[in-house]
Specification:
single chain, 389 residues, 14 helices, 2 strands
Length: 389
Amino acid sequence: MTPTTPEQDPAVQWKSALQLYPIYFELAREFVIDVKACVDLEAQVEVPGPDALTQANAWLDEMDERIQVHQLRQFLQTSSLVNQEGLVNLIQHFLAKAARTDAVRDKIDFLLVQHFSQIAPSGVVDAEVDLGFVAQHLEPLLGPVEIKPPVWLNALDRVLESARKCRSLDELLHGGVLEQGRKAKGQSGDLFYKPIALVAFTRFGYLMRRAFFRLMLGDLNLILEGLTELEEKNIHTIDCRRAQFSAEEPISRLRMICQSWKVMFQAEYSSGQPLRMLVDLKASVEYALAGGKPAATSAPAAATVAAAAKPAAAKLAKPAAKESAAAAGAAATASAAKTPAPAKSGLAKPKAKFAVASGDAEEFQVSNAPDWDADADSKPEQKTPDKKK
């Protein structure tokens, strides 16, 4: 059984292309992708000529090749231009593709989690988000799903349990948990497209997001408490060079920045995340609270979490590979112009955006940085290495 996808009727395909075109064109403009307009889609022709659909599909395929996963993620998480109808149309578009590349898989994975996070009830607790709950909400997209997951999918729960044991955002990001989740997705092969697997990975991604943001808000609270404690000690500036601030950053300014982040993170999952700065700012505050001495490392705890996560991925690998081989035989094979009016495109009114750095990084990932030397900037004969953004 395969997920429900848009009918291959030419009229349905044309309607879908008309809805996708403004979204893709805005994506191209956002990331400065040089692309020529598709004349008939640009004009929103209601009754296309004989070659119009072929040209439209070719245009969309080219854009799918040029738009990277991280760009789609950044666009949808930092913009409210795409409403729920547009998001559903994107999901159906990628589910209907015959070429099941890693990029297509990753886009489907992100889009389903993004969609579910927007339609799930706001008061739902983690314990209520079981496979049946997710399948019920995704039924309009995937059709009825038999809630009988293969054994290899159960390993995702063990990765989630490892995430729940993390005590800080830094531990989640660098303790190996996220890597195990990515391995699980990569090892699933064509089994990823089975309805029950799509449901399981959507649930996994959603619950990982919730764990991530709980830790993020927890870290922000700890930073604010630390800043208050420093002020009570009559300390009004701290060295925040490792977090890309100054060597004498005013605590009042840091508090204002953290409060703005906190409000932003409470809004929705669609906010951008300056992750490296947040993790390093917490470390800078801990360093100042310790009187200029490094805070106790959390490496042993992170190692414990990573060790707990590895067996889950190991158990997932072999069954997934075996089922992938069995399913392989049945798998499908396979410049500038004005932005069109959004009336028929599934676009909503834009809101203010929070910029995030572009790159190929997975969701929630931050770049690894060498150990920071608090005195590095004051050494005359030593150059400060370039900082990654």
